[in-house]
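Here is one record:
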Amino acid sequence: MTNELEVIKEHHDSLPGPGPEVAARAWVLVAQEIEAGGDGNQPARSRQRPARGLLGGGWVLRAGVAVGLAAAVTAGLVLVRGGDGSAPLGTPPASAAELLRSAALVAAREDVRPGPGQYFYIDQKTVTFASGFKSEYTQDVRREVWTSAEDPYEAALTRSTYGKTHVISGRSPEHVQSPGTVEYQRAGQCRQGSLGLPPQAADLPADPDRLLAKIRQDAEGFVRADQRRRGEKDLAQNEIDMRVEKVIGSRLLKLAENPLTPSQTRATVFGALSKMPTATIVPDLTDPAGRRGVGASLKFENPGGWERAELIFEPDTYRFLGYRKWLGRKDGGQAKEIAGGSMAVMGVKVVDSMAEVPKNAGEPMSC
């Protein structure tokens, strides 16, 4: 292995450094090559006994594969991984499945872990959606979340700074926070809120196929119980299937969208979403912060219309940027789609303390 590392170093020292986006994309391909266990010409290594060494505890690469990938990383050369239709370095992914699989590899390496007494800090730009009898509107909100890794369900705080409202239909809303209002929400203060990990993140399988199977089983049970509760005895099978698929999609998307979902869980979720038949690629998207990205769109039908979500990633590094949601409605022969909620992840880091809550802070309006 020493000789292989010396060869890599010689290539590294003799080549110009790449830009950060080229390097990030190249390391995605490194991870894909490692995961595949081969170079396109040799059989894959058995996954029962992985060899350890290169790349901080990852798989050990053979000399030929290592040198070729190191050259791609250092020089930014076009690299095509043979045998599976992967896109060349610097070109967009060919499908939503390819994009989501690459995003899963990136998410698995983004492991931010606070130490004792420290906190996750997440800065988000969100657009909330509200629908009432007299109006439909969205409101811009900057949302900051602090949560303890030791006790995320109890030691947590959200600070929301409200922005402008945008009326979609009807009259201007009356009961909304004025632009500039700052609101604090502590863990346990509201029955439902944005604090802490999503409840469904606990005890989930680490394999995408097993995760999908478990969520499908849970969704089928939920839909059957809901059908009994509603007294729906003659519900058509196609509508039952539609409801099951919607529950599966909603649960996976909630896990994917929440910045507090653990990195390994998010990677598994992206892998599961890559297997969804409604996933399509959107080459050019803009997140709520105005950043350009590439997206995976997932659509779920319901009797009165549909819901569609777009997961947005950096185009070269596949880092998760945020999401946008759309609501589709069928009215007679017309179909209309309007913007729902959306979110952009502006930053995730580890900090030593939470924000101070003012003594005169009132109850959050969203409770």
